[in-house]
Structure formats: structure tokens, C-alpha cells
């Protein structure tokens, strides 16, 4: 069965990985059968393979660091619900782990990495309409398009909620809709300062997140896009509550 040494002949390559990246590798090895039994393994089996290694790229100077990195990656897999203690073990001898249902689906490190990338956006917090308009673009890596679509969705909801014509757009629309004491979407149960803050929030979000993407190419990371989709979801939930 393949081992960590087979995968990383040079220990420096292994040590350069993040806990999540090394966890992807451990998951792949667990599928292949690190201890000769696919899907059933212990942390010690991974660590013992380090002890037994005497190749040129795995000298004693690296051994402690490698063990630490492997243990860290193993705990990352457990914390994220990809492995669990084998429920079939005797309570007096609990040392073996098995793959969870989700872990069984991630048969290669590439699939595991793709899952991690997608999981950066907590779907339970994304407004359904935002996901409908932006989800596909986000998943395929078109982050700027996803963010533009999300805030356009907010803009359309504000326009419809305030019964404004199609030519009302952007920051100007937000200021009208949430004008203190007068805007159709202003929450007059709040004191004036809070109403103004909400107006500023909508105007600032549209001006910062939607407008630049509508005028030029915008470089955006997956993390930044995920955060902005959550902001758009929050704004849309406010519009829902006002309409």
C-alpha cells in the first residue's frame, strides 16, 4: 500500500503543506488502505510509517516535525467531520478510525481540495435568492461575476420593494429607499441615527461591491467573494423584513 514516503520522497515537500493540504493526502491514503485495510486506520499507523523510514529525503532531523505535521493534519480531518472513531470497536480498545459518509465521497486529494474550496461559503447562511443568482458563478471560480450578481439582486429587491422605476439605480436608489423617516424601506421603529446607519450600509455596499464590477475588471479571491455574498445575503434579508 502507498505510504507518505512514496507520496513525498523529499520530507521538505510534506512539511511545506498546510494541515488541510496534508489532510487531503492522508484521506487519499486512508482510502487506499494505509494499514492494509481500506477505510480503517489509526493515527499511529501514519506515525509509525515515519519511524520506519530511512530514505535520504527523510533524515532524523525532519522526523519530529513530520510527526507533528501528520498529527495536526489527522486532527484537522477529524475536526472537519471526514474521519471518526470506528463505532464497531470495543469501548475498551478505541484507537481505530474510519471514514465518515462525507469522507468516503472524497476518494482523492483533488476531490478533497475541491470540497474544501466549496465549503468556504457556508450555504446555510446564504440567502436562497443570492445562491440562485450567484452560486454557479462562485463554484466555477467567476468570483467577480458572482458578487456583481448578488448585489444586483439586492438592488432589484430594493427597487421593487420601494416601487421605484427601472431607471433608479445604485447608491442614489439606496439613499431614497432608506431615507431617514421617509424612505419606503426605512425602519421607523429605529432612532434616526440607526436609520441613517442602515442607509449608509446599503449605499456603501452597493457603491463598493456592485458598482466597480459593473465598470471594470475586478480581481477577487474566493475568500473575499464568499464574504461579500454573505453581506449581500444579510442586506437582502433586511429588504425581506421591510417588504
What's the multimeric state?
A: single chain
What's the structural domain tally?
2
Shape: elongated
| Spatial order of the strands forming the largest sheet | 1-3-2
Mean model confidence by pLDDT: 87
Question: How are the SSEs ordered, and which strands pair?
Answer:
Blueprint: H1 4-7, H2 11-15, H3 19-32, E1 40-41, H4 43-51, H5 60-79, E2 83-85, E3 97-99, H6 101-105, H7 109-118, H8 128-139, H9 143-161, H10 170-177, H11 192-215, H12 222-242
Antiparallel strand pairs: 1-3, 2-3
Helix pairs in contact: 3-5, 3-7, 4-5, 8-9, 8-12, 9-11, 9-12, 10-11
Task: Provide an overview of this structure.
Helix 9 packs parallel to helix 12 and helix 10 packs antiparallel against helix 11. This protein is mostly helical and 243 residues long. The protein has 12 helices and 3 strands; from the N terminus they run H-H-H-E-H-H-E-E-H-H-H-H-H-H-H. The protein folds into 2 domains: 4-118, Arc Repressor Mutant, subunit A, CATH 1.10.10; 123-242, Four Helix Bundle (Hemerythrin (Met), subunit A) (Up-down Bundle). The longest helix is centred in the C-terminal third of the chain and has 24 residues, at 192-215. The radius of gyration is 25 Å and the shape is elongated. Helix content is 62%, strand content 3%. Strands 1-3-2 form a 3-stranded antiparallel sheet. The termini are far apart.
Keywords:
12 helices, elongated, Arc Repressor Mutant, subunit A, about 240 residues, mainly alpha, Four Helix Bundle (Hemerythrin (Met), subunit A), 2 domains
Amino acid at each position: 500500500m502507498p505510504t507518505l514516503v512514496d507520496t513525498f520522497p523529499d520530507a521538505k515537500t510534506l512539511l511545506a503543506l498546510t494541515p488541510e493540504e496534508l489532510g487531503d493526502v492522508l484521506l487519499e491514503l486512508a482510502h487506499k488502505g494505509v494499514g492494509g485495510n481500506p477505510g480503517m486506520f489509526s493515527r499511529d499507523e501514519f506515525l509509525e510509517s515515519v519511524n520506519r523510514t530511512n530514505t535520504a529525503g527523510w533524515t532524523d532531523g525532519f522526523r519530529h516535525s513530520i510527526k507533528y505535521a501528520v498529527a495536526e493534519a489527522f486532527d484537522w480531518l477529524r475536526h472537519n467531520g471526514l474521519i471518526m472513531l470506528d463505532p464497531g470497536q470495543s469501548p475498551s480498545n478505541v484507537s481505530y478510525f474510519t471514514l465518515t459518509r462525507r469522507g468516503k465521497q472524497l476518494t482523492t486529494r483533488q476531490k478533497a481540495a475541491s470540497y474544501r474550496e466549496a465549503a468556504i461559503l457556508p450555504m446555510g447562511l446564504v440567502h436562497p435568492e443570492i445562491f440562485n443568482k450567484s452560486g454557479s458563478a462562485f463554484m466555477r471560480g467567476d468570483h467577480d461575476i458572482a458578487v456583481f450578481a448578488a448585489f444586483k439582486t439586492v438592488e432589484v429587491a430594493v427597487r421593487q420593494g420601494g416601487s421605484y422605476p427601472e431607471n433608479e439605480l445604485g447608491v442614489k436608489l439606496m439613499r431614497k429607499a432608506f431615507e431617514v423617516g421617509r424612505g419606503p424601506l426605512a425602519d421607523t421603529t429605529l432612532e434616526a441615527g440607526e436609520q441613517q446607519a442602515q442607509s449608509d450600509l446599503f449605499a456603501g455596499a452597493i457603491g463598493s461591491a456592485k458598482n466597480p464590477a459593473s465598470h471594470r475588471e475586478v480581481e477577487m479571491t474566493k475568500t473575499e467573494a464568499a464574504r461579500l455574498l454573505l453581506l449581500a445575503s444579510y442586506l437582502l434579508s433586511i429588504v425581506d423584513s421591510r417588504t
